[in-house]
Amino acid sequence: MAKVSSQIVYRLMEGGKEMDKQVVMINKQELVSKGKQVYEALQGKLEPEHKGRIVVIDPDTGDYFLGNTLLEADKKARRKYPGKVFYAVKIGYPAIYVHR
Length: 100
Fold this sequence. Notes:
Blueprint (H helix, E strand, L loop, with lengths): L6 E8 L2 E11 H23 L3 E4 L6 E4 L2 H11 L6 E4 L10
Antiparallel strand pairs: 1-2, 3-4, 3-5
């Protein structure tokens, strides 16, 4: 079996149900690299006013969406770009969630 570690397989979901069996193949390293570049460009603008909030970024367009939770920011992003895969960051922190 071939390894697919560099790709994300994303099945489109709506209301917990799979939509039309559509599958999008994404290069994970490229998504993360582009997402980090966009976030680094926005960091100075976002951190002073929005530290601790979540930003969801479309790495292809540079558009970003803010929310108090990952779900809130993701919903905003999906309204504009349904079916896309996004990069998400907790503004001013190295991770969105910590499991203890």
